[in-house]
Design goal:
The protein has 24 helices and 21 strands. Strand 5 and strand 6 form a beta hairpin. It is α+β, with helices and mostly antiparallel strands. An 8-stranded antiparallel sheet has the order 5-6-4-16-21-18-20-19. A 4-stranded antiparallel sheet has the order 10-7-13-14. Strands 11-12-15 form a 3-stranded antiparallel sheet. It is elongated and about 110 Å long.
Length: about 800
């Protein structure tokens, strides 16, 4: 699909959206909603086909897919490289600039190309790091890749034999021999629009001038076309002047990593330290490439700070795990909605299918990279979409119970549920956006997928389901609505029992906080404190004790060694100190020669990278909490925002504490889990807060505490069911998602349960207590809520 066509289709969809919300006619809105649903679904399906690469049996790619697989799904190796500041002429260090990083990327790209892999990804990370991802890199080439990426880039200037090629011709004819200080090199000169021209040159073995004397180089357009200007330091300028004076009319080869990059003719003696390289056939790309070579940003060693390897077989198993968990989560939710909500549950399932198509379609539209955490984001987006439908249907149950006609009840339920749906999605979007901004690699993929899912959820749960209801009424298919009602609460005194529940939660929070503080850095995995992770498979089932025995007396036997299961494959994971991976591999290969060991995954994270990841993660969490506080204050009142943060702190501390007590370590993917738990926890609280806000704003009889009690009782079914539908998708991740997502799913299971509990028993009492703590009467809370501006009624679908 061309960008122009995509633009016009997108423009047409926007026009249809505007028309849909502007029209007063039910019939026209029904038709526009149907057209929008069909166009968006078809557009997304079209944007996705084919989703993945189509290959022949020998692995040759026939047709490129729209969605690219990350290294954790297709196998490969990634390196995070840090550039060390080069030395300056004054003896200090030159700061790393963007131009240096760009030039380093090109130098590294040339080194990676020699491995013959398809579509390597080389991108800058921050101000002085470069991420190199090499899919399908053979295990035998990993050490070579490590050496190539970390070695010094050697730039040299060497004289070509000063006879304009006559000696080389005589050597080819057998009349002369190669001088001992020279050797024959091949120079490939790029020609615009044509094949490279190969030229053989007789070049000195030893450099006449080192590249470390070049202080600056730049490409530009001069009198003879594209040219490169360069400047030498004081010593280089003197040597260059002497060489050019003695070799006017002869060629001077510029050599990088033993490969000739250019071989210009010396036209005149050049003193002063400034020179110009020009030629009639030099085009812009060649000039810029030569300037990049001459500035040589890799003249000092670079450091590989992070390395991750995943075998193709483990990647294939991860895809299976992701597919299994996705299918299981989808089936669980679909079956639950039909059983609990019956016919209207079927409408929600139709919207859920469209939601999935939209998420995958947008990923395909932007040629996104799909990672295993990204699959987790896709599965969790199902829970987001179903949550919105549960809110609508539970509100529909209330409206029908009040004796309203079915059509009026449906219109009213959409209008009244909209504010809670909108607020819940915005808070979730805030956390996903912050995660996308600060995260990197697979976690960024998770945040992207989750963000797309949030937008798709608003479309599918509001427009699609409302359009389905509208057609059902128009065609006379919907006469009555029947739902199960298993969760009921009439008059439980939540506020009266609040001191008891808050006391229990306070003690639990303090205990788990003490556990986290006591364990300290032991809570952190290799991603945050640095270290190595090995994942091993064997021809027969291997136990952790066997591996520990093989590592006896090596100093590594006390490393964390655990068994794991991925797609019915038994694996062993070893977490050790930084730099231990290669020694452990060698020892296990020697000690278990008949075990058929295969090293499926190897991760190395330097201590500096780990510290920076920990800092970024803390910043992400802090910004997420700040964003939630500001938004809830704006939409509700300050008392609600304070209660949200207090209850959220309770949820996160208990969740992370239980996670830590289970013997698990905090990893990078757990940052995504914690922020997503925060979003879901706030979602649950917003459901309750929205009903309290409605009660206070509508001036219901009774005290503020009585209104709160009534609201919590009325939303109890909704609160538990919204958490329950998310639990269904997370359970699928937990049992089928594999070890990478097991920690994520485990923490999320705890987070949803604890978050649902605090939404019912903790958050609302804190709202009341905070109002009193400020020395204000609780009636002030009612006035504050009434003063809040709300746009919910204007934005909701009209009846």
């Amino acid at each position: 699909m061309t960008p122009v066509l995509t633009f016009f289709i997108g423009l047409a969809i926007l026009v249809l959206f505007g028309w849909y919300f502007a029209t007063e006619s039910d019939r026209l809105r029904r038709i526009l909603g149907s057209v929008l649903t069909i166009v968006v679904t078809a557009f997304c399906l079209w944007s996705t086909y084919p989703p993945f690469d189509e290959k022949r049996p020998d692995g040759t790619v026939i047709r490129r897919g729209k969605i690219h697989l990350g290294l954790d799904l297709q196998g490969g190796t990634s390196f995070l490289i840090r550039l060390e500041p080069p030395a300056s002429a004054e003896g200090g260090k030159r700061p790393i600039t963007k131009a240096m990083v760009d030039q380093a990327i090109e130098a590294i790209r040339k080194r990676v190309d020699q491995f013959g892999v398809s579509e390597p990804i080389i991108t800058p990370q921050g101000s002085d790091r470069i991420l190199v991802q090499i899919p399908g890199l053979d295990a035998a080439n990993i050490q070579e890749a490590r050496n190539q990426l970390s070695r010094v880039a050697k730039l040299e200037f060497r004289l070509v034999y000063p006879d304009n090629g006559q000696r080389l011709k005589a050597i080819d004819d057998g009349k002369e021999v190669i001088p001992p200080e020279y050797r024959i090199e091949t120079y490939k000169q790029q020609v615009e629009g044509g094949k490279p021209i190969e030229e053989r040159l007789l070049v000195k073995k030893k450099a006449d001038l080192g590249g470390n004397h070049v202080s600056q180089a730049a490409a530009g357009y001069g009198q003879e076309g594209w040219e490169v200007t360069l400047r030498f330091d004081t010593e280089g300028a003197k040597t260059f002047g002497q060489i050019t004076e003695a070799n006017v009319g002869h060629r001077f080869a510029i050599v990088l990593d033993a490969v000739i990059q250019s071989a210009p003719v010396i036209k005149t003696a050049i003193y002063g330290g400034n020179a110009v390289i020009s030629g009639g056939r030099m085009d812009e790309p060649e000039a810029r490439n030569l300037a990049s070579v001459l500035e040589n940003p890799l003249q000092t060693p670079v450091k590989i700070e992070e390395e991750r390897q995943v075998s193709a077989s483990l990647g294939s198993d991860s895809i299976k795990s992701g597919i299994y968990s996705g299918i299981a989560g989808f089936i669980l939710v679909v079956v639950f909605m039909i059983i609990y909500y019956r016919l209207v549950g079927l409408i929600a399932d139709i919207a859920l299918l469209i939601n999935c198509i939209m998420v995958v379609g947008v990923l395909g539209m932007f040629n996104s990279v799909l990672t295993l955490p990204g699959i987790a984001g896709l599965i969790l987006s199902l829970g987001i979409a179903v949550d919105a439908n549960v809110l609508i249907y539970e509100r529909l149950r209330d409206e029908i119970a009040q004796g309203k006609s079915l059509r009026v009840a449906i219109d009213t339920s959409y209008r009244k549920a909209f504010s809670a749906i909108f607020d819940a999605h915005v808070t979730q979007f805030l956390t996903a956006a912050i995660l996308f901004w600060l995260a990197s690699g697979p976690v960024k993929g998770f945040a992207l997928t989750l963000t797309i899912g949030i937008v798709a959820s608003m479309f599918s749960s509001l427009l699609v389901t409302y359009t389905c209801f509208s057609w059902a009424f128009a065609l006379g298919w919907l006469k009555r609505v029947s739902m199960l009602h298993l969760i009921r609460s009439k008059g439980f005194d939540f506020l009266g029992n609040a001191p008891k529940f808050v006391s229990i939660s306070t003690v639990a929070t303090l205990v788990f906080l003490a556990v986290l503080l006591f364990k300290g850095e032991r809570n952190l995995g290799a991603d945050f404190r640095g270290g190595d992770l090995l994942v091993i498979s064997a021809a027969h089932k291997l136990t952790p004790d066997e591996v520990r025995g093989a590592l006896a007396h090596t100093g590594f036997q006390n490393s964390s060694i655990q068994s794991e299961k991925v797609a019915n494959r038994d694996l062993i994971s070893i977490r050790a100190d930084s730099g231990a991976a290669d020694k452990i591999k060698a020892r296990l290969t020697e000690a278990l020669p008949t075990a058929g060991l295969k090293f499926e995954q190897t991760d190395h994270v330097g201590a500096l990278v780990g510290k920076e990841l920990a800092t970024k993660s803390a910043l992400a969490l802090a910004l997420g909490l700040l964003g939630i506080f500001i938004y809830v204050s704006f939409r509700f009142a300050t008392s609600f925002a304070v209660a949200s943060l207090a209850a959220l702190a309770h949820d996160l501390i208990i969740t992370i504490g239980i996670f830590s007590l289970s013997g698990r370590e905090l990893s990078l993917i757990m940052v995504a889990a914690i922020l997503t738990i925060a979003g879901y926890s706030i979602n649950d609280k917003i459901v309750v807060f929205d009903r309290i806000r409605s009660g206070l704003r509508d001036r219901l009889s009774g005290s503020v505490a009585e209104v709160m009690n009534t609201s919590i009782n009325e939303t109890l079914s909704r609160t538990i069911l919204t958490g329950g539908t998310v639990l269904l998708t997370v359970l699928a991740l937990y049992f089928f998602g594999g070890p990478v997502l097991n920690d994520f799913a485990f923490s999320f299971l705890i987070g949803v349960i604890v978050g649902t509990y605090s939404s019912i028993f903790i958050a609302s009492p804190i709202v009341l207590w905070w109002t009193r703590a400020r020395g204000r009467d609780t009636s002030a809370l009612r006035r504050e809520v009434i003063q809040q501006t709300t746009t919910a009624g204007r934005l909701a679908p009209r009846s």
